[in-house]
Amino acid sequence: MKRLLFIIKTEILATRSSLPFHIIALLSPILFLLVFAGQLDKDISFPISFNTTDTPFYKSIDNYKSPAGTPYYEQDNNCTSILVTETEPLKVINNKLSGSINQRIESIDKNITKNYRNRLTGAISNFFYTKFPEKAIQISETSLYEKDPSWASFFAASILIFGILLSGLLFGILSFTREWELNSIDLLKLSPINPIYILSGKFLGSLIKSIITVVLYIIFVTLKLKILIFNSAEIIGIICLAYFTAIIIGMLIGIVLKQSLVAFITALIGSILLWVLGGGFGTSVGMAKGIQMIININPISKYVKLVLHSCFNGPTSLIDIIYPVIISIILVFFLYLKYYKEIYKPQFTSVKY
Amino acid sequence: METILFKDVVKKYKSIIANNNLSFSVNKGEIFGLLGPNGSGKTTAIKLLTGLLYPDSGEIKILGKSPIKNWKALRYSFGLVPEQTSLYPDLNAVQNLQFAASLYMNDLKKIKGTIHHILDLVELQNRAKDKVETYSGGMKRRLSIGRALLHDPEIILLDEPTLGVDVQGSHRIWEYIKTLAKSGKTIFVTTNVMSEADYLCNRLLIIDHGKNIALGTPDELKESLGVKEITIKKKPSLDDVFLHYTGRSLRD
Lengths: 353, 252
Fold this sequence. Notes:
The complex is a heterodimer of chains A (about 350) and B (about 250). Chain A is of the alpha/beta class. Chain A has 2 domains: about 1-40 and about 150-350, no CATH class; about 45-130, no CATH class. Chain A is built from 12 helices and 4 strands. In chain A, helix 7 (about 195-225) crosses helix 8. The longest helix of chain A is centred in the middle third of the chain and has 31 residues, at about 150-180. In chain B, helix 3 packs parallel to helix 5. At the A-B interface, helix 1, helix 6 and helix 7 of A face helix 2 and helix 3 of B.
């Protein structure tokens, strides 16, 4: 026990040489949240210019709103990028809709054009239904979660996993990179004690340091954004399990990386890739089949799912827990083998040394 | 029985031959010096001794055992003072020693007393709680020696032990090494500082391009050149001059 404590203590105290990277890792999830969720939290009104203001269709636009009550269109006569012209005013005669609309879009890509077209189609449907107060077609929506979360809430929960990935990977990698930089790797190479002590000490030291990232993030999200992520005991289990995977992957990479800067860049790119390809930005519906397959086999996608389940009562299954646990156990096995081969009994690497 | 035996050891790095039929033996309690210019194969010899490298051919025995077959058990038998001190600058001396103890000591029950004793030995007790980054080169080197003694090894391997250390610090380190040899430890030193080798070592092996060039006591090696007394009155060395003017006390 004393042996383990000394190794953990060293792991925690030996941070100064890479302090800037530690600070970036601590603050990155909060900055990500502010950039991606803070700016996009509310429904967006499209500024749009109409050529006329007295047609029935134009008047129906006032009632064209999102469920939250935000108007889909914000009429702006100075807007020159989107101009809607009713070349033949819309009308409904004998339950038939007719008319002609020209929409001029000075957009930047196909996706924006598609979005404007969808919104205009919605506006026309809305106009059509104003003629049928009894509403022949009833639409009811069933969401994935018990209550549809806001974009900010969804993102806050998802970014929790990104924060775990970034800090876990970085601190896991640095636990070995530092040894290469200080030349203390020879101390590890000549140590006769069982590698399990060293690996466990480095893992626990990295875990204690990186958990600060999550604590800071949860405090910020709860107090500043009033979003409750830490709402059940199971979230602790999910956080620990996700850290387990992230730190083990980090340590595996760290055995071969010899510079802190390379470690930081690797952790940053690695965590973004794993998170995005783990469904961190939301549903994978519509993505290419290859991407969907990667998301399915990426254990991080299970952690994203588990966090969303915990926060918003989303769907989950036993496999979402078992799968990442199995992957993590396999990674631990590989880590032990890698350490044993490269550091504990390093004669096979004599040419590289 | 020799504590260390090297017999016709060859070690190649691709096309470079680092050790070329290197042969020597070191007896218990002896201070043995391996001398050679940079790149002559000294560090490779230490890595072969510790089992960090495998020889391509030849025989190595440490305490009568092969470091290849008995690598795990033999790791308790030697303490390495590497060329670079490999200390954690963010940690103080006690914390550095605690970490090393967790890697090398079998029994950690007496860790506190052992660290206290080591710090006394290397005269760092009064700076024990200061971060190592505030230490001078000599203090770091002394702490590095202390670290190698934690698990009370039979063999101490010192790779350039006074590299970057001032004259006072070097002389103090030499005294520690002599004291260790007197207590029965076998000392293996690599250096390219001739005054160090002359003062410190019982026997020396000069190597170049990985090959044995000359082996013997410092006096035997000097006499082997065939030059008898060339001065009647011995001139002081520059080390002597420096110490005369600056004194022998440590400057930590």
